[in-house]
Specification:
The structure is a homodimer. By secondary structure, chain A is an alpha/beta fold. Chain A folds into three domains: 182 residues, FAD/NAD(P)-binding domain, CATH 3.50.50.60; 116 residues, FAD/NAD(P)-binding domain (3-Layer(bba) Sandwich); 117 residues, FAD/NAD(P)-binding domain. Chain A is built from twelve helices and 25 strands. In chain A, strands 3-2-1-7-18 form a five-stranded parallel sheet. In chain A, strands 9-16-10-11-12 form a five-stranded parallel sheet. In chain A, strands 21-22-25-24-23 form a five-stranded antiparallel sheet, with helices on both faces. In chain A, strand 11, helix 6 and strand 12 form a beta-alpha-beta unit. The longest helix of chain A has 15 residues. The radius of gyration of chain A is 23 Å and the shape is globular. Chain A starts with a strand and ends with a helix. Chains A and B meet through helix 8, strand 21, strand 22 and helix 10 of A and helix 8, strand 21, strand 22 and helix 10 of B.
Chain lengths: 453, 453
């Protein structure tokens, strides 16, 4: 009998694993259960669909279920929810809404993803309030703008994380007046204060009304939302988008007695294995190992999911493959700015991991001083005082600023010291960089701070 | 008596060393002898001055001699040539053209730079033929275009290296018909054939007439050049720019019995020390150590010079500082393309260094497939078959392609394997990258090739 590889959840991690396992070992019988209607879709593209930059929701689908079946030989079953795992008998129970069925597995991958956090705020269920997470949410928001009804003229966005910032740009692009509410003192908190300050200035320049340090207590209205309630007063809005974070979807794993880790996501080892034999987990439902701390972390981002899924697919097909560590590298477009971060930037998190963090922020030009078209790039770097090991960094600016974070991410993976970073032979030509790239300049300045300390 | 730090040559390496030494130990007496009229000038900016992108030659000067004197306390003496070093007596002989003088030193830095190679071609001295290397050459070329005489309508460029490619863009921008002559089969030979092919297509699109595999045998004309002579025939041109490479300026060092290395440049150790006590060398006259081979190499580029100079300045001031290894990382703008390379790309060079090179080239999109404005990015990666250690890479494309090479350069410094590169947590968001950055995709494909081998 053929080996059965069963995948629960048909997005990035699940479909990467399914594809890789089938390609590496075509004899394996690969079955994917997806409770929704889409598989392999790009959730990261939703703000651009709302903005109208992407025309059609289907454009966000990389490969359709039919293509997976016909071209890759993967048995994709949408509208099928796995409701129970029996790891003793290597079986899952599957429901199509009416009837249930059983499916046995040799290897099982949990790729159940994450769900949007629903903050405990009065009026969250009012019409015109959208908790954004999946494709259906994006469609609903765009229909609210493009639909037959009176188009909204103003929007409240709850949450200043990357989803909030991207949605601010998207809704502003549609001509709405945008109010962004964040309970913390800054937007993009994981990107550090220096980057956040640059982004906030730019958001204000682009007429986004920032309400920082401002918890929202309710969404006011009769059936339909008409205002956002805060301690500082009411702000009238026609629609609200809530994007305050995601949480791993782990009920299925928990019910099966599969261990969760300190972050609440499913605990995994370096091969993506869970606490139960032949059960793997990857993507937004699973933990990963942090490249700086070596400890479990929760990074629900696309590359982490794709890479872990692919590695597990290879492992299941016979070649044990590590899922790789993560640095929490992220990049966001905020109107004209590129904002990126990697590693441990938060002092408190660094101290909890046993480091004594020292950080510095510099601003330099993106090009040689005499070459036109340059712009400011602001770089933050953090390192451990004693070992001088690099801990993390952030970059914000225009003109190719953002992907410069990849250099810092690469250095983190190499456990580089600040001196190591400073000595990297990075590319220079006048249209692209000063002789000392801003990342190198930041390393030089941080080295000076460490030497002086 | 104060310590004397004497620097020969006032450009990148020399002025970086002088500035750092003086800042770290203000008691040191720092004297810089520069035989020309400029110090601290950006030779890399010359094509952009010729193009008219940079208005004034003085814009290329970062800091004037007067500013070095008044603001940094450095005794800069322009128009002064060091004609002899006596390393036994720690003295140099200095000429101002008329008279000579002696100057003692405690530490000496040779930062004598490089000079343009003058190919043995008939007619090289004709009017209208410019061997480009320094600021005066750039001025002469621009005067030929902007001056009172009949403006040239066509140009021949000799040499398809980065200077040749940059000058092609510069002269095309000034409205000249450009013929580029390269004796090798491809332009940008150190960037590898795949990148070269993309650049060549683009140069042709932009109406640059490429004469590849075409040695030039003479520059025809009476007083003034009127044509370039090749085996394939004569090509009429109004001006010629020759940029076929540079050679280290080492006469002074050779006369003093200071060792040169296998590349012909001054041999140095990891602190930039030469074979004579208290004599350092840095920049375009000196060797550096290659980060992949560990062997001496010659990389006459700005960052190498600046970093080595700065390190030597720190060492002289009391803190022994390594000059750092180099990867030969380079980036060039070729009209709309960004072209970059790092490490060992040439198979022959890799084999000489004891590796068994395997390389692969992929082309992928610069952005998520659904996000508008993306462009092709072509990535070449090379690795050693047995150890799977990464040896080098090249990137060519638009839309933020070029600086992606920094990730590869960082991986080289970490002695990364292809798997290590593949597992880097690089930044992803739809406007900036596919989920798998093209560099990661190239690593994946190369890993597949290695596994299959």
């Amino acid at each position: 009998m053929e080996r059965q590889f069963v995948v629960v959840g048909g997005d990035a991690a699940g479909m990467s694993a399914a594809s890789k396992a089938k390609r590496d070992d075509p004899e394996t019988d690969v079955v994917v259960f997806e409770r929704g209607e889409w598989v392999s879709y790009a959730a990261c593209g939703m703000p651009y669909y709302v903005a109208g930059v992407v025309d059609d929701l289907d454009d966000l689908v990389t490969i359709t279920p039919e293509e997976f079946r016909s071209e890759r030989g993967i048995d994709v079953r949408t509208g099928r929810e796995v409701t129970e795992i029996d790891p003793e008998r290597n079986r899952v129970t599957v429901s199509d809404g009416d009837e249930t069925d059983e499916q046995s597995y040799d290897d099982l991958l949990l790729a159940t993803g994450a769900h949007a956090v629903r903050p405990p705020i009065d009026g969250l269920d009012r019409d015109g309030v959208y908790v954004i997470h999946d494709m259906a949410d994006a469609r609903a928001i765009r229909e609210a703008i493009d639909g037959d009804g009176e188009p909204p003229r103003s929007a409240g966005i709850l949450g200043g994380g990357y989803v909030g910032v991207e949605m601010a740009e998207a809704l502003a692009a549609r001509g709405l007046d945008v109010h962004l509410f964040e309970m913390l003192p800054h937007v993009l908190e994981p990107f550090g204060e220096a980057a956040a300050a640059v982004v906030e200035d730019h958001l204000r320049e682009r007429d986004v009304d920032l309400h920082l340090d401002t918890p929202v207590s309710g969404f006011v209205g009769d059936d339909r939302v008409t205002a956002v309630e805060t301690d500082a007063g009411r702000v009238p809005v026609d629609v609200v988008v809530v994007g305050v974070g995601v949480a791993p979807t782990v009920d299925l794993a928990a019910d099966a007695g599969i261990d969760r880790g300190p972050t609440g996501a499913v605990a995994t080892d370096e091969y993506g294995r869970t606490s139960r034999d032949h059960v793997y987990a990857a993507g937004d439902c699973a933990e990963a190992r942090h490249v700086v701390t070596g400890e479990p972390t929760y990074v629900p981002l696309a590359l982490t999911a794709n890479r872990a899924g692919r590695a597990i697919g290879a492992t299941v097909a016979g070649t044990s493959t590590r899922v790789g560590d993560v640095a929490g590298t992220a990049i966001v477009k905020a109107f004209d700015l590129e904002v990126a971060r990697t590693g441990l930037l938060d002092d408190e998190a660094a101290r909890e991991a046993g480091f004594d963090p020292v950080s510095t922020t510099i601003t330099d030009e993106s090009r040689a001083h005499y070459y036109p078209g340059g712009a400011d790039i602001t770089v933050t770097l953090a390192a451990d005082r004693e070992s001088e090991r690099l801990l993390g960094g952030a970059v914000v600016g225009r003109d190719r600023a953002g992907k410069r974070i990849d250099t810092v991410a690469s250095a983190l993976a190499a456990r580089a010291s600040v001196t190591d970073l400073q000595n990297l032979d990075l590319a220079y030509a006048p249209p692209f960089s000063p002789v000392w790239d801003p990342v190198l300049t930041a390393a030089r300045v941080l080295q000076g701070d460490l030497d002086a300390a």
